[in-house]
Amino acid sequence: RRSVSYSCTVFVKLTKMAGKTVLISIDGSDSSNNAFKYYLDNLIRPDDKVVLMHSAEYNVSTGIPGMNSDAAVKQIVDGMKEEDMRINTMTADCGVQLRDRSINFETKLIKDQKPGEAIVAAIGEANASMVVMGSRGLGKLRRTLMGSVSEYVVHHAPPHVAVTIVRNS
After folding, report:
1. What average pLDDT does the segment 137-160 reach?
2. Distance, CA of 132 to CA of 36 (rounded, Å)
3. Cβ distance 48 to 104 under 8 Å?
4. I need a labelling partner for 162 at 20 to 30 A (CA). Which of 40, 43, 93, 125 fits?
């Protein structure tokens, strides 16, 4: 019996992700704004395509229970219009910054779906190779009770997708 040993060297060429589609989840919060800024400062490439994604949650209070139904409906409609204006302003502001850098982008608004599920679905629809999003930094107990959107995305995103969570400092 002979024993043969082989030695082999493997070279891995690391390349930057060229021409990637990046989904950036935005909601107007400080953590979301920090994530967008992180993308602009650290990850941006001239041939990127960016999908600015917002999952709309309309939290409208109708005030006093038993309120006149016409007034309650008007309050709900007005609250939804206000939220739509806030979303349009937020996405337009981000769009201006991308346009100033000559980055191809589109906006995507998703309604009637939980944010984590909406982001994971949008990853597939956009064929994104990277997701950039903020994290509110919930403690263990609150995260367990309420759930964490960023944690959901990390665990449910397709395996080929790089997920970057930007925490508030």
Report:
1. 72
2. 7
3. yes
4. 93
Question: What single-letter DSSP state applies at residue 168?
Answer: P
What gap in Å lies between CA 102 and CA 96, rounded to an integer?
10
State the residue for tokens 């906006």.
107
For CA atoms 140, 144, 149, 150, the dihedral sign is positive
What is the structure's pLDDT at 28?
A: 85
Question: Which CA distances in Å does 159 have to 16, 23, 24, 48, 130?
Answer: 18, 15, 18, 20, 11
Is the confidence at residue 10, as pLDDT, over 60? no
Residue position matching structure tokens 């597939």:
124
Residue 24 pairs in a beta bridge with 52, 132
If 0-12 CB within 10 Å is exposed, 13-18 middle and 19+ buried, where does residue 19 land?
Answer: exposed
Contact assessment for residue 120 and residue 66, using Cβ atoms and an 8 Å cutoff: no
Record the tokens describing residue 73, joined without a space: 């409906």
pTM of the model as a whole? 0.74
